[in-house]
C-alpha cells in the first residue's frame, strides 16, 4: 500500500513537468508567430512606401521633363543630367540608416573596394546612356505616346529575368508580355496623329527607337542590379540600396557634364534659361524638382528590387504608365485618339495579367507555409 502511494506521488510531479513543458512550447510558438507577424507587417509597410515613391516620383518627374521641353528647354544633356543629379539629397540618409550596416552580415564575404568601384562605374555609365535615350524619346514624342511605349520594358524585363534571374514563365506572364508588346507596336504603326502637326516622321522614328532601346536597356539594368545584390554585394541593408543609387548616380552625372561640354550645349544654357517661357525661376525649379523626383523614384525602384525582384519593380513601374497619358491630356492637351485608347487598354490588360499571376503565386506560397506550420505544430 505504501509502495503504491509512493508511485502515485512520483507520477504527479512528472505529469506536472510535462504540462509545464507543453505550456512553454506553446508560449515559444506564440512568440515566434508574433515576431513573424511583426516582420511581415514591417515588410508590407516598406513595400507600400517603395511603391508610393516609385509611382509618384516617376509620374511627376516625367511630366516635368515634358514641361521643360514645351516651355523652351532644348538641351538633351541637361534633361539627362537632372535624371541623376539629385543624388546629394541621399547623403543625409547614410547617417540616418548607418546603424543598419553591421553585425549579422559582417561575416559574409564582401566585394573589395576595387570591385565595388567597377560595379558603380559600370552601372553609372549604363544609367547615363539609358537616361540620354529617354531624353531623346521624351523630346520627340508626346507624353502619352512616350509612356505607352515605355510599357514595353515589361516585356524586355521578363526576357532578362528569365535569362539572368531564373524567373519562371507562366501562361499569364506570357500573355502579359505579348499584350504589352502589341500595345507598343500599335503606336509604332499608327503614328500619323502625332507626326502630322508638330513632329516630322523622322523625329518620331528617332523618338520611338530611342524609347524602345531605353526600355530594353533599363530592363537589363534592373535584372543586372538584382544579380549584383544577390551574388556580388550579398548585403541586406538599406545602406546598400543607398550606395547602389548614390555612386552610380554620381558617375552618371559626371558623364552628363562631360556630354554637356563635348556637345557644346553648355554654352547655350544661359540663353535657354533667359528664354524660358515661364521665367528663370521656373526654369531652375523645374530642373531642381525633376532631379529630386527622379531620386525618390529610384529609391522606390531599388527598394522593390531589394525586397522582391527586378521584375516586380518593373511591373509596379508599368502600373504608373497608364496614368501618364491621362495626365498628359489634362496638362499638355495631348491627343487621345482611338489607337492610343486601345494601346492604353492593352497595357492595363497586360499589367493586370501579371498582377493576377503574382496573386496566385502569393496565395500558393501562403497555403504551403500554413501547411508546414500545421505539420510542425502537430509533430
From TrEMBL:
UniProt membrane topology term: Multi-pass membrane protein
Keyword Protease: no
Localisation: Membrane
GO cellular component terms attached to this protein's record: membrane
Keyword Transport appears in the UniProt entry: yes
Residue segments, region Disordered: 1-33
Keywords: Membrane, Transmembrane, Transmembrane helix, Transport
Composition skew (Polar residues), residue ranges: 1-18
Chain ranges passing through the membrane: 43-65, 77-97, 117-137, 143-164, 171-189, 204-225, 246-263, 283-304, 311-332, 338-356
Pfam families assigned to the protein according to its UniProt record, in alphabetical order: PUNUT
GO MF annotations, alphabetized: purine nucleobase transmembrane transporter activity; purine nucleoside transmembrane transporter activity
PANTHER family per the UniProt record, alphabetical: OS09G0467300 PROTEIN-RELATED, PURINE PERMEASE-RELATED
Family: Belongs to the purine permeases (TC 2.A.7.14) family.
This protein's name: Probable purine permease
Species in which this protein is naturally found: Solanum pinnatisectum
Amino acid at each position: 500500500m505504501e509502495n503504491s502511494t509512493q508511485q502515485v506521488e512520483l507520477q504527479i510531479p512528472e505529469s506536472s513537468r510535462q504540462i509545464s513543458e507543453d505550456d512553454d512550447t506553446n508560449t515559444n510558438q506564440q512568440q515566434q508567430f508574433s515576431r513573424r507577424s511583426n516582420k511581415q507587417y514591417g515588410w508590407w509597410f516598406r513595400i507600400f512606401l517603395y511603391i508610393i515613391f516609385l509611382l509618384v516620383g516617376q509620374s511627376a518627374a516625367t511630366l516635368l521633363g515634358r514641361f521643360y521641353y514645351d516651355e523652351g528647354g532644348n538641351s538633351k544633356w541637361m534633361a539627362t543630367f537632372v535624371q541623376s543629379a539629385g543624388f546629394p539629397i541621399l547623403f543625409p540618409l547614410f547617417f540616418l540608416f548607418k546603424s543598419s550596416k553591421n553585425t549579422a552580415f559582417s561575416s559574409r564575404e564582401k566585394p573589395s573596394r576595387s570591385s565595388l568601384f567597377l560595379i558603380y562605374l559600370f552601372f553609372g555609365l549604363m544609367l547615363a546612356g539609358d537616361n540620354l535615350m529617354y531624353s531623346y524619346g521624351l523630346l520627340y514624342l508626346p507624353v502619352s505616346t512616350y509612356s505607352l511605349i515605355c510599357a514595353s520594358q515589361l516585356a524586355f524585363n521578363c526576357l532578362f529575368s528569365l535569362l539572368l534571374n531564373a524567373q519562371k514563365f507562366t501562361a499569364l506572364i506570357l500573355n502579359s508580355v505579348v499584350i504589352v508588346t502589341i500595345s507598343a507596336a500599335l503606336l509604332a504603326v499608327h503614328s500619323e496623329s502625332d507626326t502630322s502637326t508638330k513632329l516630322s516622321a523622322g523625329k518620331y522614328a528617332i523618338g520611338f527607337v530611342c524609347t524602345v532601346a531605353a526600355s530594353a536597356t533599363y530592363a537589363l539594368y534592373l535584372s543586372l542590379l538584382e544579380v549584383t545584390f544577390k551574388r556580388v554585394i550579398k548585403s541586406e541593408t538599406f545602406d546598400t540600396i543607398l550606395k547602389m543609387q548614390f555612386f552610380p548616380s554620381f558617375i552618371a552625372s559626371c558623364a552628363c557634364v562631360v556630354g554637356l561640354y563635348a556637345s557644346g550645349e553648355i554654352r547655350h544654357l544661359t540663353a535657354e534659361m533667359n528664354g524660358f517661357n515661364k521665367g528663370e525661376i521656373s526654369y531652375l525649379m523645374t530642373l531642381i524638382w525633376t532631379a529630386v523626383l527622379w531620386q525618390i523614384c529610384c529609391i522606390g525602384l531599388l527598394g522593390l528590387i531589394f525586397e522582391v525582384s527586378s521584375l516586380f519593380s518593373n511591373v509596379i513601374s508599368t502600373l504608373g504608365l497608364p496614368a501618364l497619358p491621362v495626365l498628359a491630356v489634362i496638362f499638355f492637351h495631348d491627343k487621345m485618339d482611338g489607337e492610343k485608347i486601345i494601346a492604353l487598354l492593352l497595357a492595363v490588360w497586360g499589367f493586370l495579367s501579371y498582377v493576377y499571376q503574382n496573386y496566385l503565386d502569393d496565395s500558393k506560397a501562403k497555403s504551403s507555409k500554413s501547411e508546414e506550420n500545421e505539420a510542425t505544430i502537430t509533430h
